[in-house]
Amino acid sequence: MRHALSPTLRLGTLAVAFLLGCSGKSEAPAPAATTSAAPAAPGGLTPFQIEHGIGPVTEVVTLGPVDAALAAAGKATFDSKCSACHKMTDKYVGPPLGDVTTRRSPAYVMNMLLNPEEMYVRHPAARQLLGEYMTQMPNLALTRDQAREVVEYLRTQAPK
C-alpha cells in the first residue's frame, strides 16, 4: 500500500528544501586551500603512498647488501607470525611472498606489516589482494624493527 503525503506536507517539504538550498549569496564558493605537498593520486593518496604504502614508514627505505643477522631475526618472526598464512611460492591463505621484494618497495612491505587495516581500506593494491584472497591480514603488532627484519628475510627468498 502506498502512502501519499498530504498537499500541505508536500508543499512544506518543498519550501524547506528550497530555503536550505538558497543561501542568498551569488558568489562562487572559495577554492580549496592548496598545499606545497605533491598532488594526491586517485583516492587521495600521494604518489609516495601509492608506491610505498600507507603507514608509519614515510620515507624510502634504502637497502644495502643483505644483513645475515637481520635476515635470521626476520625468519624467526616470519616463522612464528606469518607462515601460517603465507608460503614463498604457493598461494595459501595469503599471497606467496617469495618474490614480494621484487614487486614492492621495502617501505610498502613494512607498511603492510605495520598498518594492514588502513592499507586494506585505502590502498588499491591491498584492496585488490583482499578481493582475490578474501582474507584480511590481521595486525600482528610488529615493531618497526621486526618489520624491517622480515623485509630482510624476504630479500633472501627473492629469485636471483
Q: Strand percentage, roughly?
A: under 5%
- Counting helices, strands and paired strands, the structural category is mainly alpha
* CATH homology superfamily name of the domain at 66-157: Cytochrome c-like domain
CATH architecture of the domain at 66-157: Orthogonal Bundle
The CATH top-level class label of the domain at 66-157:
Mainly Alpha
Describe the main β-sheet briefly. none
| Structure summary, number of beta strands | 0
In helices, the fraction of residues equals 40-55%
* Gap from first CA to last CA: 70 Å
Which features would summarize this protein structure in a list?
single chain, 8 helices, 160 residues
Describe this structure in words.
Residues about 10-35 have low confidence and may be disordered. This protein has a domain at about 65-155: Cytochrome c-like domain (Cytochrome Bc1 Complex, Chain D, domain 2), CATH 1.10.760.10. The chain is built from 8 helices and no strands. With about 160 residues, the chain is mainly alpha-helical. Helix 5 (about 105-115) packs across helix 8 (about 145-155). The protein has helices at about 5-20, 45-50, 70-80, 100-105, 105-115, 115-120, 125-135, 145-155. The radius of gyration is 25 Å and the shape is globular.
